[in-house]
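Why ATP-grasp domain-containing protein? Reviewers of the renewal asked for a concrete example.
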Amino acid sequence: MQPTTRLMHSATQHLNSGAVPSRPMNLLVTNTQEEQAYLILRCLRHEAKRIVITVPEGSVFSRWSGISAWSRHVSRRYTVPDCTAEWRAGRIRAENTPAEEHYMQRIEEICVREQIDVIFPSYDAEVMVFAKNRARLAEQGILAIVPDYKPLARIIDKARTLEAARAVGFPTPASCIPENEAELLDAAGRLNPPWVLKPRCNAHGANIHRLEDVESLRTAFAELAAIQPRPLLQECVPVGTKRNYYLMVTPDFEVVSVHSPQIHRHRVIGVRTPCAVAETTDEVPLLDEVKALVRELGVWGAMTVQTIVSQHDGVPRLMEINPRFGHNLWYRTEFGVNEPLIYLRMVEGKPLPEIPRWPAGVLLLDPLWDLLQLYLLAVDRAGVWLRRRLGRNGGNIPGQSGESVRDLMRTLKSEYFGPSARVTNPLNRGLLSDPLPPLVRIGRTVLFEWNRRRAVKRERK
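Here is what the prediction returned.
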């Protein structure tokens, strides 16, 4: 049996052999536009009698573009209003706003109708709303899988997270929060361009600007301040690679699981650098600082500590902490570590399932993104060649390095067909067991990249 086959067999066997709960639950999974929501329902489907999901109100596309909405494991779908406006504006408060209260009332209606026992969110804004209403739901016999609200508020605000990191000696980019334009220009004068200007509360790299001149900085500051007051100004760390720490932390702040794969390749999407290929490893830099940061923040549950490794010194610098599962949850579930079930047992106060050790030297691959990157690189290189043949400026390829199509093909061949053990993203599989989600994911990914490239071309004109 090949290494890949052995790993996949072991993972599937472990995930399908979880202890049967005393009473199957009715599970509500929210924010199902996110890929991690589908991974969560897949991990908990054997624990649940029924799985109900929410989709956002709005257009048909917004309701049905999430892959979870198409899963055969879902018993019922409900629309819910938006609850993210206050979070996106950076207004973090312990009481519900009118929009959040409207959202909670809709959730409670769904819970009564479907006799929901457990709610599992995995997006920052919804995690925050459920955390502040956890006691309210508990009085109705509903368990929300979220951490405590007070420490959560420190994580959601990136500026407060960086303050905690500096307090325990975790490296961070030089940063400040300018109150006005005068403070902005003064701080920019102390930092060498380019600068990064971003909201203190955001996700998926939304509204993050990389700026190289003062006039652009002033314009971006005015735009961001209108969306979310007091944006965060940072030095731009030259990206050598990335380093993420995927943690499971108990309520007494013991880190019971930490996974920090080494990144081999990353994509460039605007100011974001998501992972393309990673490899499991036993070497985890700054692990003591990570644990100290968790204790300083006083937060527990599932979280992702995101860092950028500088080209200059090779030191990881903290960018943010996501207090939830992310779309790379499969990095752990494919090795039989059912983290959604572990998190559920943690919140229930029950003994935790056994957590297997991570095997080192296993490649973590996503064929969909790699094939798309190969195709787009080929299209771009062909366009450059054609423009040069016509006597025009070949131009630069936004978001691409100097890598050739042949180089990328050689790299992919070694990764997918070389001697190393490997696992692939499960969202690419399941055409027989749950056929529609993988197909919808392909369509979503291609459409996202097409829209992004159109936006880049508009900006260049």
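Residues 17-148 form a domain with the Rossmann fold fold (CATH 3.40.50.20). This is the kind of structural detail the renewal will allow us to pursue systematically.
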